[in-house]
Amino acid sequence: QLNNTMYYRLIEHPITDIKDIMIILNREKYRRTISLKLYKHLMPPNQYSFRKFYTLPKIHKEKNKWFNSNTPNGRPIVSDIGSMTYNISQYIEFKLNSLIKHLPYVIRDSKDFIEKIQNINITNKLLVTADVESLYTNMLNDRCISTIVYYLHKHNSFDRQNILIIDLLRQSLQTNDFTFNEKYY
After folding, report:
1. SS3 call for 52
2. Most buried of the four, 32, 60, 69, 107, by CB within 10 Å?
3. Which own/partner pairs from 142-147 qualify as long-range (CB within 8 Å, at least 24 positions apart)?
4. How far is 3 from 6, CA to CA, in rounded Å?
5. Taking residues 134-156, what's their average pLDDT?
C-alpha cells in the first residue's frame, strides 16, 4: 500500500516539527486564549515516538481484490499514541465532536441511523449506500478546514479558541508523517 505514490511518498526525515507546535501554543498562552493547565496538557511530551503505520486486513473482501492470493488489502491506520501531536489530536477531536452533534446529516453508527429515519416515510424513495475507497487520503485538507471554519461560524461564536483549533488542525493535517519499517512517509 505504501508503494502507491498517489497517496504516500517516502521522505528522508520527519516533517512534523515540535517548534511549529510550540509557536502556536506559546502564542495562545501569551494571548491567554488557553489556561496554563490546558497549555501544559497540549505540550508535546518530553519523550515521544513518531506516528506508526499499520493495516487491519480486509479479510471480508473478495480474494480477487487481494494484493495476491495470500495477502488481503489492509485498512490503513496511523497510530498517533505517544507522538508529539497526540494530546493536540485528542483536543481537536474533543472540540469538534461537540460541533458534529449539531449536524443533521452525520450518522455515528447503525443505531443513530435507525433513530434518524424511523419517522421518515421512505416509500417511493431509493436508499443507497456507498463504500468510499481511501477516504482520508482523498480528502483535500484546505477544503476540510474551510468546511470546519464554516460550521464553527454557523454553530458557535467564532472566538480565539476556535482559531486555536483551526491552527492546530492545519498543523496536524499538513505534517501528517509517519513511520513504517524504520522509514518515514
Report:
1. strand
2. 107
3. 144/173, 145/169, 145/170, 145/173
4. 9
5. 86
